[in-house]
Amino acid sequence: MARIVAGIGTSHVPSIGVAYDQGRTGEPAWKPLFDAYEPVKAWLRDEVRPDIAIVVYNDHGSSFFFDKYPTFALGAAELYPVGDEGWGRRPLPDFPGDAAFSWHLAESLVYDEFDITLCQELAVEHGFMVPMHLCFDHDPGWPVRTVPLAVNVIQHPLPTAARCWKLGRAIRRAAESFPDDLRVVVLGTGGMSHQLNGARFGHLNPDWDNEWLDRIEADPAALAALTHQDIMEQAGAEAVELIMWLSMRGALTDRVRRAHRNYYAPMTTGMGLIALEDGA
Amino acid sequence: MPVQVDRSRPIADTRIFGAEESRRGYRINKFAMSLARAENREAFAADEEGYMARWELSAEEREAVRERDWRRIMDELGGNIYMIIKIGTVTGHGLYQIGAHQRGETYEEFLATRNASGAR
């Protein structure tokens, strides 16, 4: 069977990708962010050793527009090309998929009453790519096969935090019913506090963010009980995307061991990181 | 069933992108989304008015784009930041410039409010 062996909650801020592509990772203002991921890369490579990475992210106007914006969409392809979301293709290798594993996930999730949209062609963008290049070396190619799982966190009504948590539970059941022995890591991406619209643009709440980091490890049920309103009032309208971390956490058992944690809020977004080993 | 977005508790200086905003902003967001294609960016950069005329934009929407009036686009015209940023990219306005304009500040004033503005 496939096993969920670890989960990572991580920022996917697009400026991280720009700084990375420009080779600015060692600059004083960026170092506290990039340095924190070096031990995560080593941990993934040497200890977690995943075959598959399920990346829970949202599409910011790359593959989906508001003509058709799916609540949950799952990639089911052998390859996910690097997309163009308005500033050209980034210099990253395309991402290998595992269509057989994705189709198994789809079947299990749909029969488990998660009515996802299945995508046999899907270009991926910063919500997916920034976490990947922060966590994995990729020269010449990516060391894991990937499964993009896109969640609507940009056009209300959004799925609830509790629903995202339950989706994580369903992902675990789906993995455990896959016949092949595979090691799976789930990445929940986005956040933390930020707001990009209105005169409240730039709102940050580091105390709230750090409490979220405490709770995602030790008391995730409390986070799953939050409403979108609760999150947006405290942490900004766009912070609501943190509900995607609950799909990561829901895929893990109650008891986890924290391997890494970081927080940095240089500009307009709390950039959070937590790495959890399952069943510790 | 708990209320997820409580309209009786409006959040100051905040737009929650839902039914009202997505319907009002559909045209301008669709126009912005078109700029996710390189050939459309080139067409817009070469002839802004001509390119905008190819889309169903109101006179008010065209004017707001022409004037780079990000605050109006976001506050009044239903702009979604993830779409509108594509107009910003083509016209040389990054996210933080758009944000400063929404706050009613100069770019420099806005940067001075940040913890480490080198991380941009």
CATH architecture of one domain in chain B: Orthogonal Bundle
- Beta content of chain A: 15-25%
What summary fits the major beta sheet of chain A?
8 strands, mixed
Top-tier CATH class of chain A:
Alpha Beta
Question: What topology emerges from the helices and strands here?
Answer:
The complex is a heterodimer of chains A (280) and B (120).
Chain A: E1 2-10, H1 14-21, H2 31-48, E2 52-57, E3 72-75, E4 79-80, E5 95-96, H3 99-111, E6 117-119, H4 126-135, E7 145-151, H5 161-176, E8 182-189, H6 206-218, H7 220-224, H8 228-235, H9 243-250, E9 256-264, E10 271-278
Parallel strand pairs in A: 1-8, 2-7, 2-8, 3-6
Antiparallel strand pairs in A: 1-10, 3-7, 4-5, 9-10
Helix pairs in contact in A: 3-5, 5-9
Chain B: H1 19-24, H2 26-34, H3 38-46, H4 48-53, H5 59-66, H6 70-75, H7 81-91, H8 95-103, H9 107-112
Helix pairs in contact in B: 2-7
Q: Could you walk me through the main structural features you see in this protein, from its secondary elements to its overall organization?
A:
The complex is a heterodimer of chains A (280) and B (120). With 280 residues, chain A is α/β, with parallel strands linked by helices. Chain A is 35% helix and 21% strand. Chain A is built from 9 helices and 10 strands. In chain A, strand 9 (256-264) and strand 10 (271-278) form a beta hairpin. In chain A, helix 3 crosses helix 5 and helix 5 packs parallel to helix 9. Chain A is globular, with a radius of gyration of 17 Å. The mean pLDDT of chain A is 97. Chain B is an all-alpha fold and 120 residues long. Chain B has a domain at 19-92: Protocatechuate 4,5-dioxygenase, Chain A (Orthogonal Bundle). Helices cover 58% and strands 0% of the residues of chain B. Chain B contains 9 helices and no strands. Chain B has helices spanning 19-24, 26-34, 38-46, 48-53, 59-66, 70-75, 81-91, 95-103, 107-112. In chain B, helix 2 crosses helix 7 (81-91). Chain B is globular. The model of chain B has no long low-confidence stretch (mean pLDDT 97). Classes of the chains: A alpha/beta (280), B mainly alpha (120). The interface between A and B is large, with 44 and 53 residues.
